[in-house]
Amino acid sequence: MSLPEACVILSVIVLLLTSSKEAASFQSGSRSILRALSGENKALVDYAVDLNSTNFDSVLHDTPATHAIVEFFANWCPACRNYKPHYEKVARLFNGPDAVHPGIVLMTRVDCALKINNKLCDKFSVSHYPMLFWGPPSKFSSHGWEPEKEKSEILVIDDGRTAERLVSWINKHLGSSYGLDDEKFENEHLHSNISDPGQIARAVYDVEEATAIAFEIIIEHKMIKQHTRVSLIKFLQLFSGSSSFKEIICIRCRKGSAEVLVNFDDLCPPDMWSPDKQEVLSNGKGMLGNFQVCGKEVPRGYWMFCRGSKNDTRGFR
Hints:
This protein is α/β, with parallel strands linked by helices. The protein starts with a helix and ends in a 35-residue tail after the last helix. It has helices at about 5, 10-20, 55-60, 80-95, 120-125, 135-140, 165-175, 195-220, 230-240, 250-260, 265, 275-280, and strands at about 25-30, 30, 35, 45, 50, 65-75, 105-110, 130-135, 155. The relative contact order is 0.14. A hairpin with a 2-residue loop joins strand 1 and strand 2 (about 30). The strands form 3 sheets. It has a 5-stranded mixed β-sheet, with helices on both faces. InterPro entries: Sulfhydryl_oxidase (IPR039798), Thioredoxin-like_sf (IPR036249), Thioredoxin_CS (IPR017937), Thioredoxin_domain (IPR013766). Keywords: Signal. Pfam families: Thioredoxin.
């Protein structure tokens, strides 16, 4: 298997986001999962996902995000109304088609003033408004929360009274450095008529997964040889800067590929083909082999659009 053959994986990557542009939008219950009140004014956009007893389990079960925040509030509560702008400032970072850091945290809310949500709010022992919970999305859909329970993967966010404090709390638990002023790297060629942010997020996940696996194949099959060094550089250039693939390759993968190119001589030095260096590479300890081109969370080991009919399999076979 040669290095150029690995580039065939790019065709899968191209298909993923191309097909997602034709995906139909979906609704969560009676309200859109992401409700934009104005496409022009960002201040009028609700980034947090509105949940109720009918869609709570399904949305949290199906999200590709690795973490979730659920805000329990009441629409009559003055403190909740004052807190909403703070919550939305943070949700802007993680939710929606223009999310700065997509796929990390799904930020949601539940209105406990609605009768339909009474049992749901009781299930989480909501004692005051607003009350914020943090945990793996799957745990929300399968468990409640009890204050007396010592060991629980669902945590109460005890210091999120402002947007700044909430981001700080998230950073502390993720070991991250997100900021309210973080901005997305805009792609001037990206079409704005893609209507379904949920479908986009799933396509992005599969693109990242395929990209990371392509690099794994190159490393694990020992395809980096002295005579294929130029091909590898061209492969990286295709990911990081090609105008033809700018709309398809995800931001994190593009940044990672660009970083490899900038540090290529350190990660893939000319003398790496010496016998002693080859032994290190064969043991999987080479610097390039340890570089996570799409971020430390990728590959995740599962697919969204490309999920196969059986566990641990990929579709499109």
